[in-house]
Amino acid sequence: MKLKNKRWMLPILFILICIELNSCQQVVSIDLNKADPHIVIEGIISDQPGPYTVKISKTGNYFEPSLYFPPVTDAQIVLTDDTGQRDTLKESDQGTYLSSTLRGISGRTYSMTVVAQGKTYGASSFMPAKVVIDSVYAVKRTGFNSESGYDIYVMFKDPPEPGNYYRLNAKSSTLIPADSIDGRRYRLYTDKYTNGNEMTERIRAGGQVQIGDTITLDLLSIDKAAYDYFSTLRDILSSDRSPTSLSPANPNTNLSNGSLGYFAAFAMDTKKIVIK
């Protein structure tokens, strides 16, 4: 395998352990010749009730690949916001840290400081206002091979202010794992060309959902840093890995000091529909 293809695979190994989301952004490029493990930080704050989670692990030696990513223990993590809230996280399990007092509120900027294995990492993220889902409905359709299936439609109104970014998650009660009912894990939207418009998004669920299934739709209002992270991640996953590919080597990150991963604050609205 050529090194350029090895370089592309590192983010894929990282994705296998991701569970799910402004200031300065950067593209972290990993020199695989050194084969040094790198810190991976996943921090999330939402407008839903806490606790909020930060997970820290390390990529393994690339030349001794494994799906096991060792957790980073005994880290010091502090979450703050621009109003003075401060929360020191506690380790609940190896590599998993939980908040206790912080509350996620739209319109605030949240910062995360991580001290792990002698290095300090930081990031910040702005939590946008929540955009609600106006309606969700399903339409039965028949494909070319006469197999029936469903399209799920989600409608929401983009605010009049420009610069809004979204991630839409669609899950079924009967799919294990319940990542996405149509295989699109990173369903992202921006109002660059649709500012202030009513937006209707179709999810081609096909035969993946059946009568009686409960479909859960989560609309996440995210900031640009989170959008860029997931957008570049999606590009990497869909790249053909050719030498002329325009995909970056690794996803954009808002984390400092060479860490992989992301820190994201988002507001979320959820709607459910039962297929009848």
Characterise the protein shown here:
The protein has 276 residues and is mainly beta. It folds into 2 domains: 3-128 and 222-267, Immunoglobulin-like (Sandwich); 133-221 and 269-274, Sandwich (Immunoglobulin-like), CATH 2.60.40. The protein contains 2 helices and 17 strands. The chain has an 8-stranded mixed beta sheet, covered by helices on one side. The protein has a 4-stranded antiparallel beta sheet with strand order 5-4-8-9, with no helix packed on it. Strands 10-11-14 form a 3-stranded antiparallel beta sheet, with no helix packed on it. A hairpin with a 6-residue loop joins β2 and β3. It is globular and about 60 Å long. Mean pLDDT is 82; it is low at 1-25, 30-35 and 241-248.
Number of helices: 2
Question: Hey, roughly how much beta strand do the residues contain?
Answer: 35-45%
What string gives the helices and strands in order?
HEEEEEEEEEEEEEEEHEE
Q: Please identify the structural class as seen in this structure.
A: mainly beta
Mean pLDDT: 82
* Named CATH architecture of the largest domain: Sandwich
From the N-terminal CA to the C-terminal CA, the straight-line distance is: 49 Å
Shape annotation? globular
At the fourth level of CATH, the homologous superfamily of the largest domain is Immunoglobulins
Based on CA atoms alone, the radius of gyration comes out at: 20 Å
